[in-house]
Specification:
By secondary structure, the chain is an alpha/beta fold. Helix content is 54%, strand content 10%. The protein is built from 17 helices and 7 strands. The chain is elongated. It starts with 10 loop residues before the first helix and ends with a helix.
């Protein structure tokens, strides 16, 4: 049953096993991204038992309310008129003294599914509890998505819902909402519900109407203008943001620009810097289309300039948070940054 993979068992494989009715006796779900943890926990809670079996065989507790010994004792019980029992410990990071659970993992009850949801951090992989859990069940680390991974996540999520989304729309949504996957999927669900059955495509017009992101003035278009060294367009977008701070604040745009130029710096080391697919593979991007702006950027910015831009972005980020900046507003800081990038 045990499966040990790099960075823990992968989310997709866990969900496939659960959908096939294969439940491990132990799950340690940990990490900084709560979305994947919640999806796994919710699926087990809703599908490991029939509804009529849950009253006597499903227990949900919080780590602050139980000891490791109490959890182990619950897990040792036998199910009542059911194939299995389910014990879910939410906020398991609040459990103290894990020794009793370590002992339980030496010989877990095969008819128990014990789920430990450990959020906002990880357990040291060298600790006995992790090593023992890997031998008998599943250890999964849920990591935050990096900014450049979000469009790929959005595309996959939308496809699973029977819809499609173009590359620009996915990037618009990613730039506007960011890496909070729970909020991201919630917004996507609202958009999907708004689509007519005859046309299940998410387009820039749909994103503009349903999420409120201008299809012409957004982070995607600003990055595109900067990559193409289009000074007029970039300044027009920055001016729009300055007049409409809710449309795109510097606190959203600065990390987006940092991510682009950080990747652009890496792109210079790609074995073949002119081939979209090769650059995409080098940067771990979903497809060749996603690499186009980096190939364009390498034509318009030297490696030295990119290093200077990254340093300027770091300086602007610090000033936007009040460090060494007594007077300059965030909007002006963004204008100064874009001017520096383009000149």
């Amino acid at each position: 049953m045990a499966e040990k993979k790099q960075n823990g068992a992968q989310f997709e494989q866990i969900m496939q096993d659960l959908a096939a009715g294969v439940f491990a006796p132990v799950y340690i779900l940990m990490g900084d991204e709560s979305y994947y943890i919640d999806v796994i926990v919710d699926y087990i809670a809703q599908n490991a038992l029939r509804e009529d079996e849950r009253d006597f065989n499903q227990t949900v507790v919080f780590g602050a309310d139980v000891t490791a010994g109490q959890v182990a004792d619950m897990a040792k019980r036998f199910p009542m008129m059911a194939e299995r029992q389910v014990i879910i410990v939410k906020e398991a990071q609040n459990i103290k003294n894990w020794e009793r659970l370590e002992a339980y993992f030496d010989n877990p009850q095969p008819s128990t599914v014990l789920v430990l949801a450990y959020k906002n951090g990880t357990i040291d992989g060298r600790k006995k509890i992790v090593l023992k859990a890997q031998k008998v069940g599943i250890v999964f680390e849920s990591k935050k998505k990096r900014d450049y991974e979000l469009p790929g996540f959005i595309d996959s999520y939308v496809k699973r819902k029977g819809c499609s989304i173009d590359n620009k729309s996915a990037q618009m949504v990613a730039d506007h909402i960011g890496a909070d996957l729970s909020r991201l999927t919630s917004e996507l669900d609202k958009v999907i519900l708004s689509l007519p059955e005859a046309d299940m495509r998410i387009t820039p017009d749909v994103v503009e109407q349903q999420i409120g992101v201008s299809k012409d003035y957004n982070g995607y278009e600003l990055r595109s203008a900067i990559a193409n060294h289009d000074i007029l367009k970039a300044n027009r977008i920055v001016k729009y943001f300055d007049n409409n701070p809710k449309a795109g604040s510097a606190f959203m745009l600065i990390p987006m620009l940092f991510s682009y130029f950080q990747n652009l710096m890496l792109a210079y080391y790609a074995p073949n810097r002119t081939n979209e697919n090769d650059v995409a593979k080098w940067l771990d991007l979903k497809n060749g289309w996603a690499a186009r702006e980096y190939i364009t950027g390498m034509r318009n910015y030297s490696g030295v300039k990119v290093m200077q831009i990254i340093e300027k972005i770091r300086e602007t980020d610090a000033k936007s948070k009040g460090l060494d900046n007594p007077n300059t507003g965030v909007g002006e800081l963004l204008k100064e940054l874009v001017f520096f990038i383009l000149h």
